[in-house]
Design a protein that fits this description.
By secondary structure, this protein is an alpha/beta fold. The chain contains 21 helices and 19 strands. A hairpin with a 2-residue loop joins strand 4 and strand 5. Helix 12 packs across helix 14 and helix 15 crosses helix 17. The longest helix has 41 residues. The chain starts with 6 loop residues before the first helix and ends with a helix.
Length: 585
Amino acid sequence: MDLMDIQPVVQRIADAIAAVLKIEVEIANHQFIRVAGTGEQKISILHKMEGDLVYQSAIRTGQPVIIENPGYEQVCERCRFYENCMETGEICAPITYKDQALGVIGLLAFDEKQRRRLFENTEGILTFLNKMADLLSSKLHEHDMIRQLTRSSEKMDKIMNLFNQGIIVINERGCHQEINLKAKMLLGIDDRSSLPIQVEKLLRDIVQKSGEFSQTISLTIRKQEKTLFIIKQKLAGVEPYSEYLISIQDVNEIRNLAEKATEEQKKPFDQIIGVSPSILEVKEYAFKVSQSNSTVLIQGESGTGKEEFAKAIHKASMRKEEPFITVNCGAIPENLLESELFGYEKGAFTGANNKGKLGKFELANKGSIFLDEIGEMPQLLQVKLLRVLQEREIEHLGGTHPIPVDVRIIAATNKDLQEMVSKGDFREDLYFRLNVIPIIIPPLRSRKEDILALSDHFITIFNELFQANVLGMEIGVKELMINYPWKGNVRELKNFIEYLFNFITNGWITMDEAEALIHRKLSINKESIPRATSSFSLVEMEKEMIKKALKFVHYHNLNIEDASDLLGIGRATLFRKINKYQIDT
């Protein structure tokens, strides 16, 4: 803090003291800059003082200083005006705040008349001077408090405006004390005008309702219908001077935010490519399933994407930040599977790690574990898995005490577990524990719409992987792809596209180029390969060529207008024909 911060106030106090005592006054800050002064001292206000040794002494000691013989006393010896001082007397006192010297207030006499007034009642003058110093200190404190309150208010305004909901503070009469920008926007409040009548009535009605509450209301504000969700909370206060915090949200905004949050949560399922109604239904169902902790059993033929669904369920769940551990129950030898799943203690068996080992369930703690090919699990381990599902605890191989685990189990199989249960190959009680939420993925041959969508997806992937420039498949190849049974499902389709990329890396995949390759790779008779019906329709040929040109420019990130150059027609002609043939751009 500095006396310069309240210079006008300091000057007014100096003028008042001079008027009462008929003695000149000057007030300096801790840097010995004259903040205020009367008489001749007024001329050099805001300048560094000269010969300020007396004031230095007052600040250093924290005590008043009385100079009866200016220019001849000990404190004056180092002053440039020693033995040549214009003053006839001086009394000064430090101005302190929280034990810190902030400056000095001095009374100066320049003639005998002023000198007599200054020293005729020294004790009274010192008392008065100390009171004036305290007054200056309190004024400085007041200024500092106002500055702090202003800063706090500015911070509060900024904080309130960061909220994505309207915030209003109202008093017991319904008058608003604080309001943020969001509230002004929602309620149609203009800084240059008064509150709309509906808003004033709304605030009064809110105050009149007893207690805290939340409700949805409809308002017509500036000819616009709005549905608002309002929450009222009481702030600290003593009746009848209470204040209330009102938060306001647009119901449509809340709904949109909820929809956006849902869409964000659904993103993991975007990795599962498919446009058929059946796969879209399974994806929607799986997303809803992901929001719980229930055990899931995914069933489907080999290659349908069971693991992809398991990953998506985990990544869309509340456990997404925790581990996702995969165990293929059919790929691990039976004598090792137990130790892989449940871990073991040191020395549990010959060849065991002397430090022991954590099992997959412990590694997946707080997250999810995916048990693929669950139908291959041996009967002995089925019993132990059942205990995990029932008790939510495991026991190390060679261990003697249970270990609690918090794991979501997602199992998958390409076998008919019900049939295995009927034959005694799979425990019925385990089947029911696993089959809490069943998900059945349809085979690729039953959702033919997805074959071409997946093919385009894999072409994009392999274009990047092979540094290739394949534009797509001709109609004859597409017909073959759609009609082929794909017993290996998505996995077989992906492998087939990769196979083609080893031989075709540019342009279109046509039957002329791919027929021999298809015959070698797929279990299909050469004679049964479909042929595109020849068409000599100029309209169809023109339409097809425009589509190819548009696909080419789109793939190469060119403008639609560039397709006109490829086709050798004018820009206007191209757009007219696009509209004529209703071609998607």
